[in-house]
Amino acid sequence: MIVDESSVIRDGLCTLLAPAADIDVVAATDSGARAVHLAAVHGPHVLVTGLHLRGMSCLDLLRRLDAERLPVRPRLVVFAQHDNEDMVKDVLQAPTHGLLVKDTSREELAGAVRAAARGEAVFSPSVSHRLVEWYRTAGSRRVRPATRSALQSLTIREREVLGLIAEGLSPLEMADRLCIGEATVRTHVYRLRTKLELKDRAQLVAFAYRAGVAAEEGFAA
């Protein structure tokens, strides 16, 4: 389901998703209250929402949906026209499964919807880079012993995959970057989750930041 006060953005998102044979847009609206009703009626697996809605903010909508007893609780992806610091912090503190900004491509949007449907979190590269900078500033490179030990248990390839997860890359993009198959990437991700005892991609991202991982600069020692 698509929610945004701008008909141009709603239509644009619908158009971008239209070629994806495995994605059906079941409803679109500009109203936060209407979105809650439509979510109860249609049971969408994923809700893509803009920041600005009629009648409430997107964060209010997220809280409303989180509080509702819906037959299917949609996973939430926020599509924003900018990535300023306050907005990113607000969205990441809400129960979301992704944050995309205006330079998102057709493939990235469809990939984010698919990832959210699987329970994974996806961020635009600019958002992921901002998160890395926040953790650097906060002194995240002073790695705790338990985190250091867990990091040292990983193979070199698993560390590479973890770094690319921290960058916000999809499995297909990671496969292209590492010149391996997408199935092999998914195997590495599964092994990472098993070794680190983490449930999903969002927790892998959080671990990568705690460990001071930045793919372009290597790993904290």
UniProtKB/TrEMBL annotation:
Keywords: DNA-binding, Phosphoprotein, Transcription, Transcription regulation. Residues 1-117 form the Response regulatory domain. The keyword Transcription regulation applies. Coiled coil: none annotated. Pfam families: GerE, Response_reg. Residues 147-212 form the HTH luxR-type domain. SMART domains: HTH_LUXR, REC. PANTHER family: TRANSCRIPTIONAL REGULATORY PROTEIN NARL-RELATED (PTHR43214:SF24), TWO-COMPONENT RESPONSE REGULATOR (PTHR43214). This is Response regulator transcription factor. It comes from Kitasatospora arboriphila.
